[in-house]
Amino acid sequence: MNISRAAAAILLVDDEPHVTDALKRALRREPFEFFTATSGAAAQEILERHPVDVVISDEQMPGMSGSVFLSAVRKQYPNTIRMILSGQASLEAAVRAINEGEVYRFFLKPCNPTDLAFTVKQAVAHKRLEEQSRRLLREYQKQASTIARLERDSPGILRLETDEQGAVVVDEGDAECDVNDLLAQIERAMTAR
User: Fold this and answer.
1) Domain-terminating residue out of 113, 133, 153
2) pLDDT higher at 40 or 153
3) Residue 100: which of 39, 40, 153 has the closest Cα?
4) Which SS3 state, helix, strand or coil, does residue 24 take?
5) Would you say residue 3 lies in a domain?
6) Residue 68 belongs to domain spanning
7) Domain count, the chain
8) DSSP per-residue letters across 55-100
9) Strand 161-162, strand 168-169: pairing
10) Contact at 8 Å (CB) between 73 and 82?
11) Cα-flanking dihedrals φ and ψ of residue 162, to 5°?
12) Is 1 among the domain residues?
């Protein structure tokens, strides 16, 4: 799975530092930049200072549960992928994490390092595709706006006549509009945006 940026930023949150160290070891072969925090509050400070692609949080932490923390992440950083780890699988915790934090995956501790690495790579690839989709949509909207402006400023400028075989028909009567003038109009419209 190819990740478009060299290093995805991963935030690991667990009140037990040996767990975040183990997660970093499990993911060490991947092109990730790691941030770690021992609480939801500390993790929120990291998120304020650094763009993060994926957050993996423990569920049971003092002060703020992982699902409450991930719910806040969802609201403030909706494009950040959220995952949760839990040492005690309760249906209530899983439902809360899914409903409130809209988590991408729910892992039980100890999780399989290969599964974790694959899932994080998959999440990063998913995030990159969403980013590319948003970028392409913005580009399409700009182009549609330019086309609408061209048509508004010069009605019929974009209309083409074709024959039965689909070839473009050039009407000699339309010669008043020189091709160079048309290209200049398009160029002006493109630079005006």
Assistant:
1) 133
2) 40
3) 40
4) helix
5) no
6) 8-133
7) 2
8) EEEES--SSS-HHHHHHHHHHH-TTSEEEEEESS--HHHHHHHHHH
9) antiparallel
10) yes
11) -125, 155
12) no
- Residue 133 in tokens: 């989709």
Computed over every residue of the chain, the mean pLDDT equals: 82
For residue 52, which of 33, 68, 69 has the smallest C-alpha distance?
33
60 in the same domain as 22: yes
Whether residue 53 sits in one domain with residue 78: yes
Which residues fall within 8 angstroms of residue 127, CB to CB, at 6 or more apart? 8, 53, 54, 79, 81
Which two tokens mark 186? 């398009």
pLDDT digit string, tens, across residues 23-63 = 898 888 888 999 999 999 999 999 999 999 999 999 888 88
Predicted confidence at residue 136, as pLDDT, reads: 93
Q: Which helix (H) or strand (E) holds 26?
A: helix 17-26
Instruction: Indicate which CATH number applies to the domain containing 81.
Output: 3.40.50.2300
> Which residues have C-beta within 8 Å of that of residue 189, sequence separation ≥ 6?
146, 149, 150, 153
pLDDT > 70? residue 176: no
- Identify whether 110 is preceded by a cis peptide bond (ω within 30 of 0): yes
The owner of tokens 């580009």 is: 139
Asked whether the whole model's pTM tops 0.85, one would answer no
User: Per the structure block, which two tokens stand in for 146?
Assistant: 């330019």
Question: Can you tell me which residue has the tokens 């493109």?
Answer: 190
